[in-house]
Each structure stands twice: as structure tokens, then as C-alpha cells.
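Exercise 7.
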Amino acid sequence: MFDSRELSAPVAAVKADHAPDAIVFDSERDFETLPPEQAEELGFAVDSLEPATYPSAWLPADAPTLLERYAGADFTVGMPGDGSVVWTRQTEPPVVLVKPRVQGSPESFVDFLLAEAFVELGLEIPEHFLDFFEDGYRDLDRAVSLDANSTYQIAAALYDGWVGLQTREVFATWPNDSPELAAAWQDAGDRLEGRVSGLPSAVARNETDFADATELACAAIKHAIELPAPFAALDTEAYLDHGPEYAIRWAEKTFDALTE
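Solution. The predicted structure, written as C-alpha cells, is:
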């Protein structure tokens, strides 16, 4: 199920700086969430497993089934929206998994995704948005006047944006320390920039729904791309400092304005 992955020299250097103990595997199968019986195969490659669990009281009554399973006692790795490279600290040492969907992507972009995972591991941030919002996820659910899956998507995006405010500080040092990774970071941002600037009109014309727009805007934060309203309010020191409380208040104000 899992094969060791060899890292390029620039990525290995980032790993050494931010997550030296992490081990990296290619996954034989693509996944959004690894079934527990497959995730537990990691136990043969690590020293120990300690599945994360979260109180059911943090979840709204209509929470998606996968989120309920993630909060429960099963050993769960990966959730929808996590992307092509996933990391977990539920193992000792921590593990980074590369999904087969990266095949066909430019090698430089895959290197960026791996380096990003190591930077995130080094930040000691929550592993998932549920651990970020905690019981505030119910407040976010009340603020977002959309279905449960859209609320999940927005929560994941808001967490991604908060993380991006931190990782981009590291990425900004790469032109001097790792020019190959810096170029990949810049190229990925360039590809997003035009789509992000057109988000307000795309939402107004119903070409993009609000959850998708939030996901795209928050993904752009790590690339230091200028965001349009109402997403620009997330690219702030206030969001970095106040995290989930700020995100919930942003959702309340944004959806109040959308329903006026």
C-alpha cells in the first residue's frame, strides 16, 4: 500500500529544516480518506499510532458522515479537500503520503507540495479544521446559510487560508535558500491570480458558487495574491492572530451581506 519516496535535494533540505523526523511514502491507491484497515498498515512502518478523536459535541447535527467518522475513534488519515499530499501526526514519527494523482504533474509542482507539507508539519498547527474550530464549528455552521457539504468546504478553506498566512512567510525566503522551490511557488500563484481577481463577478453571475470561491481565494493566500472583497478581510494579521473566532465573525458578516 505504501512505498518509500525518494526526495529531491531541495525538498530534502526543507524536510531537514522543518520536519526532520517525518517519513514519506507514495500511496499505491488514490484516496480522500484512507479506510482504517489501510491506514493501520502504516503501523508496520512507524513506531506507534495514536488516533486523534474529537468530541461529538463539536459537530452540527447534519455533519457529513466522513466528518463524523474522522471525529470518532477510528484511525483516519486524509479528508476531502486535503489535496494530493497529506501529512499526519497521528503516527510517531509523522508521516507524509503522496497520492498517485500527482502523476502527470510537473515535478517542480510536486516538490512544492512536499515542501509545503514539511513546512506545515514544522508549524505544529492542527491537523484538520475540526481541531482548529473545535466547538466553534457549530457557530460556523449557523453562520453559513448553505448545506452541510458546502459548510465543510468553507471551513476547510478558511483553515487553509489561516495556515497559508504562516507558510508564506517561509516560502518568501526560498528565492535565496531554494530558488527551484521559489519558482514553483511563484508559478502556482501566477496560475491562480487571474481566477482569483475575477471571483466577485463569477459569483454574481452564478458561474462559481460561494464555497468554491472561498476555497480558491483561501488557496491563494499562501501565494500572497491580492484578494478581492469579501475575501480580502482574511488576508490580515487579525485573522492570523485570532484564527477561528475571526473566521466565524467573517462568515457571519459575509452571509448577512449576501442575504440582504
